[in-house]
């Protein structure tokens, strides 16, 4: 009866099908007549404007007043999340890119990096480490520059010979190595004339050490 009221025969559809947003495929409307953009999670729907069944969505009329349209939701009322136009089920693990992995949870998602964010310090066998993108690999890797490549990097930071501006970076100073008297604290920083990461040290004195008691004569 609803189909007889809303669906007209024969079909009269636009000559050019609509352009759908990303993640919304072209499907037949509720009358099986014209191609329309499938409605996505949380979007309004009705008999004609159907939801994306490939994502497990149905038109939910439970929270809509009588005679009004519904909202696209999962058939089993399971919460999901939408990322880049694609809907994921609750608990589903996915990778938006090769560098991060995410998990859909309670309508949102949590992500963790898959690439290590380590810092490689200069060593005798690799005095000039540099992190670069490797063709065919997702995560950047550390390489050792050749001698002829780092000559320009040895110039002062203000020199126009540097191929890039020096962006200063450093960690916070660590705890003093001694609880009393002279000690030293360390940090990792590139604030030097070569703009290279290095371990820096400075003296620290928290409190003077108490005087030792005088030795008793034997």
UniProtKB/TrEMBL annotation:
Entry's Gene Ontology cellular component terms: extracellular matrix; extracellular space; nucleus
Domain (VWFC) ranges: 79-145
Gene3D superfamilies: Thrombospondin type-1 (TSP1) repeat
Family annotation (InterPro entries): CCN, Growth_fac_rcpt_cys_sf, IGFBP-like, Insulin_GF-bd_Cys-rich_CS, TSP1_CCN, TSP1_rpt, TSP1_rpt_sf, VWF_dom
GO-annotated molecular function: heparin binding; integrin binding
Pfam families: IGFBP (PF00219), TSP1_CCN (PF19035), VWC (PF00093)
Keywords: Cell adhesion, Disulfide bond, Secreted, Signal
GO BP: any one term: positive regulation of cell differentiation
UniProt subcellular location: Secreted
Domain IGFBP N-terminal, residue spans: 1-75
Keyword Disulfide bond appears in the UniProt entry: yes
The family this protein is said to belong to: Belongs to the CCN family.
Main function: May play an important role in modulating bone turnover. Promotes the adhesion of osteoblast cells and inhibits the binding of fibrinogen to integrin receptors. In addition, inhibits osteocalcin production.
Name of the protein described by the UniProt record: CCN family member 5
UniProt source species: Cisticola juncidis
């Amino acid at each position: 009866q609803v189909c007889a009221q809303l669906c007209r025969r024969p079909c009269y559809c636009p000559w050019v099908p609509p352009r759908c947003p990303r993640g919304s495929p072209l499907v037949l409307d509720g009358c099986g007549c014209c191609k329309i953009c499938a409605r996505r999670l949380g979007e309004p729907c009705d008999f004609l404007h159907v939801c994306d069944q490939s994502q497990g969505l149905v038109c939910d009329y439970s929270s809509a007043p009588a005679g009004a349209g519904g909202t696209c939701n999962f058939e089993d009322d399971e919460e999901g999340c939408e990322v880049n136009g694609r809907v994921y089920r609750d608990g589903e693990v996915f990778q938006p890119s090769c560098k991060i992995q995410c998990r859909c949870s309670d309508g949102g998602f949590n992500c963790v990096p898959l690439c290590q964010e380590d810092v490689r310090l200069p060593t005798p066998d690799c005095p000039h480490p540099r992190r670069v993108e490797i063709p065919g690999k997702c995560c950047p890797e550390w390489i050792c520059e050749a001698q002829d490549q780092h000559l320009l990097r040895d110039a002062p930071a203000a020199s126009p010979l540097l191929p890039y501006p020096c962006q200063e970076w450093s960690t916070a100073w660590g705890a003093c190595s001694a609880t009393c008297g002279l000690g030293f604290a360390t940090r990792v920083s590139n604030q030097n004339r070569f703009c290279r990461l290095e371990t820096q040290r400075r003296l620290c004195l928290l409190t003077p050490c108490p005087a030792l008691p005088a030795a008793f004569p034997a």
